[in-house]
Design goal:
The chain is of the alpha+beta class. It is 34% helix and 18% strand. The longest helix is centred in the C-terminal third of the chain and has 15 residues, at 102-116. The radius of gyration is 16 Å and the shape is globular.
Length: 160
Amino acid sequence: MTAIDQIKKFLIDIVDISIGYSEINFFPANTLEDEQVGYSVDPNGESLITGQNGDWQEGWIAIANDNMGDPFIVDTNSISLKILSAAHGEGAWEPLVVADSLDKFKNILSSLMIISRNRTNPVDLEKNPISDKERQAALKEIKIQNPGAEIWFWEMYFEN
């Protein structure tokens, strides 16, 4: 199975996640190529991949974004299909690893889905805040499964 096939299968099986103000919105598998506009290609279909540091890199595929427009990226150059994220609109892409593989990202999302129950919007989160115990358990599990990931990214996800 190719990396693109794995990504599309992943996208077919996944749902958007929202905890309070923090969201992850996944692109539909059947529009994945169209969703690359603004990332790997411009609105005219011209490549934005130059090979230069700070530009979108060959092998990166945006699969989702957060509520700020920052993409979640599969790095198809890595055998494990690492998941990256980077701030959008900063003038340069400076990605960080948020999951060591696509499979481990799916595990993170499963944990987030459990935590998001009855907390999908700011009002619900205020009524039912995430306990320190829940937060710490989730972060510990993410760290154990993803030693190469920037754990502060997920700490910020829970804070927002």
